[in-house]
Write a structure and sequence with these properties.
The protein has 451 residues and is an alpha+beta fold. It has three domains: 119 residues, no CATH class; 114 residues, 3-Layer(aba) Sandwich (Rossmann fold), CATH 3.40.50; 144 residues, Tumour Suppressor Smad4, CATH 2.60.200.40. Strands 1, 2, 3, 4, 5, 6, 7, 9, 10, 14 and 17 form an eleven-stranded mixed β-sheet that branches. Helix 9 links the parallel strand 4 and strand 5. Helix 2 packs antiparallel against helix 3 and helix 11 packs across helix 12. The longest helix has 40 residues. One of its GO terms (molecular function) is kinase activity. This is Diacylglycerol kinase family enzyme. It comes from Trujillonella endophytica.
């Protein structure tokens, strides 16, 4: 018995020990990144640091100008954004210091990676709880054969689903009311609803499933499949999602609503919604974006917005994103992911950058107004216009203001295959205080036998 207890302690303590060593490695690498320029460049190290920082500021400012301007001014800004780092490289080569910068940057990158792993949240903070689930008897699936470039046909999803006992309805006619299809199926006795299609269609059928408290199956047959990504499903082979019909587990997740309309990912206001709403966007995405951004960033186009997130006023954001549960912000690779879909809160990101100076301020963390991240149970968006374009799960619609976004915690029962890729563990936010505390705290003593 004592042997088992000691082994259990090692199983718990080892991850903490590993995180502690990762924190120490991160601090050592960061210190080494600071020592290398001083040792190699001597008195020139301060000049090297200032010059590199100034180049980063110039690139960011010029990049912003390139989005804000048109014609020759835009191309001049692009030339500056590309020319500044090129000039820095030439100067560093001439001074024999290029290797110093490369080594220092490499050490800092390694330090950030080790710190992110050390400060990674506990598994319970990001793993979606699931429970066993009995196989459905009469599943009903809606499939869009055009979605994702024809994934329904390419992966024989209809045939495979029917072989598993599912009734399948193909969306082969325009303007089909998918919610009515789902309600009719429930009236016939369906005990599971599912969708092979884009996230917009997923949300509409998910709302019906939530209203009737029946499980919902996500089949990753859309183009980007953001919802499937955050559920840990296989986005490369949507047929693997069908395994949930015979061997599945179930989780309860949240469902967002905007003026009563459901969304599973996010709703966007401002610049992105205005660009997507442009009729030319579908045929020329890049050209439309570059053509409309100067007016949007300059305030010459688009309605003025005021958001209120549980009492926090967001005055005049150029872009406002409200998500069904918050997006991660541990590192750049995690910005488009949500580790949990059952936190019961909306994620809110508001962006306001009106000048190149404010853009540079974001780089040094001086502009709090530039990017605001918060969480709320309700977000109300008002405007001086009676209607505004809104992107709902990637689809552009016009809604009457004021617009109310809410969240229904645990409203949706989602059915998942037992064997699935799962989500990637989020990295921890780089915070030097907690990192130092983790690296310097002594390990707890093992409990005494029988304690």
């Amino acid at each position: 018995m004592p042997r088992h207890a000691r082994g259990g302690h090692r199983a718990v303590a080892d991850p903490l020990r590993d995180r502690r060593w990762l924190a120490r490695i991160a601090l050592a690498l960061a210190a080494l990144a600071a020592v290398v320029p001083v040792a190699a460049a001597g008195s020139r190290s301060l000049w090297l640091l200032l010059l590199t920082a100034a180049t980063c500021a110039v690139v960011l400012a010029a990049g912003f100008w390139s989005l804000q301007q048109r014609g020759p001014r835009r191309w001049l800004a692009v030339a500056v954004a590309l020319g500044a780092p090129a000039a820095l490289v030439v100067l560093l080569v001439a001074e024999g210091l290029l290797w110093v910068v490369v080594v220092a940057v490499g050490l800092l990158a390694a330090a950030a990676a080790a710190a992110g792993a050390a400060l990674r949240p506990h598994r319970a903070a990001w793993e979606l709880p699931v429970v066993p689930a009995a196989a459905p008897q009469r599943p009903f699936l809606v499939m869009n054969p055009r979605s994702g470039g024809g994934k329904v046909d390419r992966f024989s999803l209809r045939q495979r689903a029917e072989a598993l006992g599912a009734e399948v309805a193909l969306l082969d006619r325009p303007h089909t009311d998918v919610q009515q299809l789902a309600r009719d199926a429930l009236a016939r006795g369906a005990d599971l609803l599912g969708v092979a299609g884009g996230d917009g269609t997923q949300a509409l059928v998910a709302q019906v499933a939530a209203e009737h408290d029946v499980p919902f199956l996500v089949i990753s047959a859309g183009t980007r499949n953001h919802f499937a990504l955050d559920l840990g499903l296989d986005r490369d082979d949507p047929s693997r999602c069908l395994a949930a019909l015979r061997d599945g587990v179930e989780a309860r997740i949240d469902l967002g609503e905007i003026n009563g309309r459901p969304f599973v990912n996010n709703t966007s206001f401002g610049a992105y919604a205005e660009i997507v709403d442009d009729p030319a966007y579908r045929d020329d995405k890049r050209g439309t974006t570059l053509r409309t951004l100067p007016d949007l960033l300059g305030g010459r186009r688009g309605a003025r917005l005021v958001g209120e997130a549980d009492g926090l006023v967001l005055d005049g954001p150029q872009a406002l994103l409200v998500s069904n549960d918050p997006y991660e912000d541990g590192d750049l690779t995690a910005m488009g992911r949500r580790a949990r879909l059952d936190r019961g809160t909306l994620g809110v990101i508001a962006v306001h950058v009106a000048s190149a100076r404010e853009a540079v301020g974001l780089l040094r963390g001086a502009s709090r107004r530039g990017v605001v991240r918060t969480q709320a149970r309700e977000v109300v968006v008002r405007s001086d216009a009676p209607t505004v374009p809104v992107g709902i799960d990637g689809e552009s619609v016009h809604l009457t203001t004021p617009i109310r976004c809410t969240i229904r915690p645990g409203a949706l029962r989602v059915r998942l295959p037992r064997e699935r890729p799962g989500i990637r563990p989020p990295r921890g936010r780089l915070q030097w205080g907690p990192l130092w505390e983790l690296a310097t705290t002594r390990a707890p003593e093992p409990p005494a036998p029988g304690a």
